[in-house]
Amino acid sequence: MQYTTPPKKLLIINILDVMKRYTDSAHRLSQKEIVDLLEQNYHMKADRKSVKRNLMDLIEFGYPISYTESIRIAKNGEKEIVYSDWYLEHEFDDGELRLLIDSLLFSGHIPYTHRSELIRKLEGLSNEYFHAKVKHINTIPCNRPTNPQLFYTIDVLDEAISTGKQVAFRYCSYDVDKKLHPRKRSDGSIREYIVNPYQLAATNGRYYVICNNDRYDDLAHYRVDRITEIRLLDTPVKPIETVTGKKGRLDLSEHMTEHIFMFTGQSRRVKFRADRCILNDILEDFGMDVEFSDITAQEVTVTARVNEDDMIKWAVQYGKQAVILEPDALRDKVVTVLRDVLSQYEKSQ
Question: 273: which strand partners?
Fold first, then answer.
């Protein structure tokens, strides 16, 4: 096969590509090795001096290229500086890229094709040596329900939040045909939701939009992967303080701590007794602002501020290790739920 000799002005671009593909702090190249790769991969002949000159130009342009200097005695007895061990400092190291890729692998809300494309792009941020470490990418699970409109929905929500505009959309649920179907009114017509979006948040492997349904006066959460047919409206959002009663922006950290499972509703002060063996889970779920009291070797009393429905689900999940003490009304609701669950099992026997 005949190759056209590439123009010399492409030399600096090809050298940069060599540095991206074949180097990192653990894989360094000499100028001679770079010359060989240029000829092998780009059919471009170059000498070591021109390689060094272009590498220095790349450094001057701001590329994070590192090298080592050493002193060599020439045949004429004079000292000269030798430049070697050239490598590019990548923006992400292999550990960081692996973490990002693994996060995508197990993101059930991102469609299979989009996950594959994003992972391919992340791989491109590293070099040839990284690809061998991520062969497991071929095992991406593709049997989970996904919404092909997800990325478009996120784009519209981002624009709405940044410009302070309302959005309208259909909110869907899966049926036995394994497809999304828009929720309907009692008369059978498709329901359109108009909301005031304030923040996007990710929790429990899902994306949520934290917003206010225009028909109500409190905060609500909608799964972004259940939203379809979204439209940006011209009408401005309600000021956040008219919904939360608090001035300024939404305190996302506080909000997420109080809504473990993203149920809608007001938060309240809750006290419960728990085994110390689940302290890790308590701190991860309720945050570092919880208060501990009546501490013994086996148990601790925990006081936290949390959404009521979230607390009910949490209490049922940890029913063997935690018991709600206050408020009494919440305690009674948990007892009712547990009795209903027991009744269901008894009926099925």
Answer: 301, 323
Residue-wise pLDDT for 36-47, tens only, equals 999 999 999 999
Looking at this protein, which amino acid is placed at residue 32? K
Percentage above 70 pLDDT, the chain? 93
Torsion of CA 199, 251, 205, 100, to 10 degrees: 90
Q: Please say whether the beta carbons of 165 and 232 come within 8 A.
A: yes
Distances from the Cα of 158 to the Cα of 153, 215, 249, angstroms: 9, 22, 16
Evaluate whether 286 touches 304 at the Cβ level (below 8 Å): yes
Whether the predicted pLDDT of 65 surpasses 90: yes
Query: Given a cut of 80, is residue 110 above it in pLDDT?
Result: no
Task: Report CA Rg, the chain.
Answer: 29
Do 166 and 235 form a contact (C-beta atoms < 8 A)? yes
Separation of CA 317 from chain center: 25
**Alpha-carbon gap, residue 204 to 259, rounded angstroms:** 11
Q: What are phi and psi of 283, to 5 degrees?
A: -70, -35
pLDDT in tens, 169-191: 999 998 888 888 999 999 999 99
